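ok trying this again, last paste got cut off
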Amino acid sequence: MAKELRCPDAMPCHNQEVNSVSSLEQPRRGDVIPDHAGGNLAPAEGASQPCRDTSLDSDSNGGRSNCDAPPGDSLLGGCELSGQIGAQLKLLPMNDQIRELQTIIRDKTASRGDFMFSADRLIRLVVEEGLNQLPYKECMVTTPTGYKYEGVKFEKGNCGVSIMRSGEAMEQGLRDCCRSIRIGKILIQSDEETQRAKVYYAKFPPDIYRRKVLLMYPILSTGNTVIEAVKVLIEHGVQPNVIIVLSLFSTPHGAKSIIQEFPEITILTTELHPVAPTHFGQKYFGTD
């Protein structure tokens, strides 16, 4: 009888490095400290830079995180606000490959071809890690040489939901990883009079209430669109604790707003930064 393997509780936060220590003190792996901050509004482009160096070992630094950003730089309050968003926010471990893709996507001089190529690569990385958050079961298979191999396989009952329009850019990345996965759609736009997010269209698999949902939306700016989408999913019987939001970029305010509204939801993204590349959907679909 196959038994369920537990999903990892947390992923390493991006842009984290082990502090340099003296020869008498050896570095050790510490607890995960997620990058995050709070605030009411995302500042204008270039207003601030992310905290790039956060210690993995808070004990070696007197319980405080390091932030080597220049004076005046902050992540909507700085590194001292680490931990307020919580473990439900998961960031891909930062490396040079991811950083380059983020740079190309943010570069206003990048061609649309380079932009789409980089976006698709980053989407694939996020989708792969999103699938890694889903439960697996142990299984036994027989190799062509007759060897018994103990492996794992996905539990059945997963689906994707894209928030139109920019969320549709992530659909192919999900299909590339899960060829037969079912994908629903939801359209949410701001009301011209009230400026509040309003649901205009929603179509889901009929048994979505029994499925785990990968909610795809590449840019989390205010978080309002995702909050409305989650409310619609809840109306269709989906529990927040089985929803994983797949995003490429998020502002601290956007991530914090979503988790404050739905503490059991999981958000997976590559970067937490006060300035989100809100041009993503227009450039990806060629409407900029």
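PB: full thing came through this time. The first strand starts at residue 4 and ends at 5.
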